[in-house]
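Wed. Picked up where I left off yesterday with ABC-2 type transport system ATP-binding protein. The coffee machine is broken again, so keeping this brief.
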Amino acid sequence: MIEFSHVSKVYRGVRALDDVSFTVEAGSVTGFLGPNGAGKSTALRILTGLSRATSGSATVLGRPYAELDCPGSQVGTLLDAGAQHPGRTGREILILGAMTLGLPRSRVDEVLDLVGLTGREAKRTFGGYSLGMRQRLGIGHALLGRPRALVLDEPANGLDPQGIRWMRGLLRDLAGSGCAVLLSSHLLHEVEQVADHIVMIGRGRVLARGTVDELSRGRSLEQTFLELTANADRSAA
Ligand SMILES: Nc1ncnc2c1ncn2[C@@H]1O[C@H](COP(=O)(O)OP(=O)(O)OP(=O)(O)O)[C@@H](O)[C@H]1O
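Structure written out below (tokens, as returned):
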């Protein structure tokens, strides 16, 4: 469903990704974990056609993102919740997204309901939105076209505890209906609760992948994460 195959990316001498391979199956949530600068955003940008791999390939639904027909209705993406015009209202942003995808306006109301934004909040301009509201709107925007794959970069960032619980339920429901969900996060505890599979990267390389149980091996996921990333730092030094 989502596949990275031997993806490497070099930015002017900086190796941001080094031979990254993993898959995300339909009907599952994969948490993509790594410390700052590990290469998570670079990988997600390559997957969604915003950046080009130096070598290797990344595909969604069997094809590179740029080659998908109407990608917005097949793959939902949220890479930067702040990337909207500050003068547009939340509703206008969703209406524009719905129009681009050829969807009726009724879908906008469904999505607002799904992400828990009230009619009053939807009438406010994006510039006045809190980070949590931006995340909710961004997730709603990603879901407009009822995509079969969802790619989210730090979606829980800025959400309050109720928001985090809401998102967990939403992602589980989406996976339950067959969607392939890939999300990056720093929130280990949160990822532990929502993900079926984990991929840990450090310094651009996959350090470990497997189920939460396989990776934590009776300890906390945090301990495994800290140990693996420290080892990666030591071997790079
Ligand atoms: N456009 C760019 N030009 C040069 N180097 C870049 C560029 N984008 C990312 N990098 C470098 O690539 C590496 C990976 O960065 P990336 O943003 O993918 O990491 P990340 O895991 O998403 O980090 P964070 O959790 O801090 O967002 C870093 O060393 C970063 O400095």
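Quick read: The pocket of adenosine-5'-triphosphate is lined by residues 11, 14, 16, 34, 36-42 (CB under 6 Å).
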